[in-house]
Amino acid sequence: MIYEDSAAWARAQDAKDPGLRDAFIFPESGPLYFAGHSLGLQPRQARPYVLEVLDDWARHGVEGHFAAARPWIKYQELLTASTARLVGGQPEEVVVMNTLSVNLHLMMVSFYRPRPGKFRILIERGAFPSDQYAVASQARFHGYADAVLESDDPLQTLHERGGEIALALIGLPNYLTGRVFDAPALVRAAHQAGAFIGFDLAHGVGNLLLQLHEWGPDFAAWCNYKYLNAGPGGLGGVFVHQRHSRAALPRFEGWWGHDKEKRFEMSPRYSPIVGAEAWQLSNPPILQLAALRASMELFDQVGMPALRARGDGLTGYLEWLLLRLGAEVLTPPERGSMLTVRFAKAQSLVLALQKRRAIVDFRPPDIVRIAPAPLYNSYGDVQSLCALIRELHG
Q: Which of 48, 144, 178, 199 is most buried per CB count within 10 Å?
């Protein structure tokens, strides 16, 4: 695409592909909103869906589990097929549950099985701090104080030190740089080394074209409140590959992972559901599921291939405009819909943008993260943001 730094050109592109901007509510504080990598916008349909649950609760009380318009006992299953499509998995491989760090710990209960000589956990250098805390605490729990291995090139490290590695947990993409690693190659290398591998998809789900079943990681976990617009603190999700559906893996157990047909028999013996749902512990919060359902319907409406193509166009346009301003773009070409940019006086720039009702993300000391989310951001948004940066930053 040949870009132009022109509001008229941007409007022409948006006329060709308007996205689903009108399906979302933009905040009054920042109608130029480029922080979907941190918290996605509210879908307009989220309120009616949440109110529907509240009305059913008022009308039916406990009987809402079975008598609600959409019975709560099966509400999460409304999201199973769309979640599977979103991550390129089979329906039995996915479940919406808990939050990200909780899910990572539950996955490591099953997939971090250290032993003398093979106890290291490989993460990418600069992984999200919560991931760093989680893996370090899991290693200590198993009696290994110095097990975490950070790498700028996880693939090379797997080839060179795979004999020591029990688990690789890689952010896809990295939360700070936006770098997308070669997932299939990482999976092959980990399995050749006799290691389990999982992905933190907090910044990948709803952003990248994912084919988890085909790529074959052992597991993945993510949050749904960034690109998936589930609302603040919204539920996360988990993928467990089909080959582990009936495997005798160690895991923590709870009643919601118990055989659905026997769940209310209150048997003292656990009978796991086949697939990822067996990792569930408690019944899910229906109000949060309702909010997420509103967004997932929009992803199904557009489809990830079309969204990724639109995201590539928007992100490419943003990069082109920023480079014309002399900004230093740190995100490599292997990326999704977020650019990490270094600015002198980055914090003052971000604060000045906020006063002009443009929302981006500051990371000390000099990093600005900007995400044109393809569901609701436009070429016009990108052009207007960069015009403001030119005016404010010089």
A: 199
Contact between 272 and 245 under an 8 Å Cβ cutoff? The reply is no
Write down the domain spans for the chain: 7-43+303-393, 70-300
CA 337 from chain centre, in angstroms, equals 12
Beta pairing, strands 42-43 & 24-25: antiparallel
pLDDT the model gives residue 196: 98
Mean pLDDT of 331-351: 96
In terms of Cβ atoms closer than 10 Å to its own Cβ (0-12, 13-18, 19+), residue 165 is: buried
**CB distance 173 to 204 below 8 Å:** yes
Query: 70-300 architecture in CATH?
Result: 3-Layer(aba) Sandwich (3.40)
The three-point CA angle 375-380-384 to 5° equals 120
DSSP-derived 3-state class of residue 260: helix
**What's the distance, Cα to Cα, between the start and end of the chain in Å?**
27
pLDDT digits (tens, 9 = 90+) for 185-239: 999 999 999 999 999 999 999 999 999 999 999 999 999 999 999 999 999 999 9
- Give the CA dihedral 349, 350, 355, 356, nearest 10 degrees: 80
Question: How many Cα atoms sit within 13 Å of 73 on the Cβ side?
Answer: 13
SS (H, E, C) 150-179: EECCHHHHHHHHHHHEEEEEEECCCCCCCC
Torsion over CA of 193, 151, 342 and 355, rounded to 10 degrees? 80
| Ramachandran region, residue 62 (left: φ > 0; alpha: ψ -120 to 50; beta: rest) | alpha
Backbone angles phi, psi at 353, to 5 degrees: -65, -40
Fold classification of 7-43+303-393 is Aspartate Aminotransferase, domain 1 (3.90.1150)
Contact between 42 and 33 under an 8 Å Cβ cutoff? The reply is no
Bond from prior residue into 18 cis (ω within 30 degrees of 0): no
What's the predicted TM-score (pTM) here?
0.96
A 10 A CB-CB count for 85 gives 17
